[in-house]
Amino acid sequence: MNALKLVFDNIRRNPLRTILMSLGTMVLVVVVTLVFTILDSLDRATAEKSKNLKALVTERWQLPSQMPYTYATNLSKGAASEPGDVVPDDCMTWGFYAGTTSNSKTLTFDSLVFAFITEPRKLRTMMDDLDSLSDAEAQPLMEAIERMEATRSGMIVGADRLKKLNKKVGDRIKLFGRNFKDIDLELEIVGVFPRGRYDSSAAIRRDYFNAEIEKYALTHKGQAHPLAAKTLNLVWLRVPDKEAFNKVSQQISESPFFSAPAVKVETSSSGIASFLDAFKDIIWGVRWLLAPACVVTLALVIANAISISVRERRMEFAILKVLGYRPSQILMMVIAEALVVGTVSGLFSAVATYSLVNYYFEGIPFRIAFFPSFLVPLSALWWGVAMGAGTAFLGSIIPALSAQAVKVSDVFARVA
């Protein structure tokens, strides 16, 4: 108990040094928590599952994938044609429409709308994150989907994009096609996506878009739109397990209906991982260079601060030895002082980061792939404690060994 009391007395002895160590630890925890949040989210998105898999069907030899919509019917069935073939549990077609609210040649981010072309009901059952919402959480989305199904030109928009457009639910909007040139859409905003991955996205009805593509020929002397046969970008298929995925993949690969252009089948996690290949060097550098560099830097700062404290307290350690304290007790006391500061600071910083990022900023706005923002996971609380305690321990080892090695005779000889 006396040693424990000494630990807290020494922490309070130099409040400025303690505060600086705490601030350094808190800054480290904030940085590492933000970095690990993004890495953890990407790791989970690219992790292979064994049950309830999503298969991703895209064009084999071209990026971006552009397939004819005539593929949709057979692909949605997993190319099942024979008794014993596996039919997917659910399916969803995706096209991508990029439009702007102004027909100006100058493109601004605030005027841009990136929309999925799909079937309204599939938003709830097939879209990542939306398919895992509870019934209560999904209720506003389901109401928006019902309005979208009742309104042929209906559109659901993410909250951030809606704010950028300065629009609200019920407003009408005209989009001028950018990737589908001359395909301009008159749309009605019927709902908002739940907060999360789709804050900057939108969704429009497949049948409405297809009808607008067909209208193009009526105003262009019967000539079809240049991209009329390239409106299907990818197809999602939900299968129960890996065995069913392999069977569906084989059925599609061997089907004669998907040869011009050829298609490929992969799991959703593999597809996301392939997309993230463009960022792999950045992700590798953040994981193995930035985060360790932060830890090492703070450990050196803590080691320097504690070393100064140890040098100032050599007389104190000599007196403690005279009073019967063993070298190991002095070593543990110095380490304990650092651990208390590091652990408390790390926990405080982690709790503050979790609360501010998730509830005030509503996620880390780091746009990569289809992830507009990242929420800090609850596990970040123990990340903060582990990071604070770990760096404090690493930084205190050498100064603690120095304190343990203080020789009573040398200290008192200098005093004499």
List keywords for this structure.
416 residues, alpha+beta, 2 domains, six-stranded mixed β-barrel, 9 strands, 53% helix, 15% strand
Summarize the structure.
The chain is an alpha+beta fold and 416 residues long. Helix content is 53%, strand content 15%. A hairpin with a 7-residue loop joins strand 5 (172-177) and strand 6 (185-192).
Structural commentary:
With 416 residues, this protein is of the alpha+beta class. It folds into two domains: 2-45 and 279-415, no CATH class; 62-261, no CATH class. The chain has 14 helices and nine strands. Strands 2-3-7-4-6-5 form a six-stranded mixed β-barrel. Strand 5 (172-177) and strand 6 form a beta hairpin. The two termini are 32 Å apart. 34% of the residues are buried.
Write the layout of secondary structure elements.
Layout: H1 2-13, H2 15-45, E1 51-59, H3 72-76, E2 90-100, E3 112-118, H4 122-126, H5 135-150, E4 154-157, H6 159-165, E5 172-177, E6 185-192, E7 201-205, H7 206-218, E8 234-241, H8 242-254, E9 263-267, H9 268-275, H10 280-312, H11 314-322, H12 327-360, H13 380-404, H14 408-415
Parallel strand pairs: 3-7, 4-6
Antiparallel strand pairs: 1-8, 1-9, 2-3, 2-5, 2-8, 4-7, 5-6
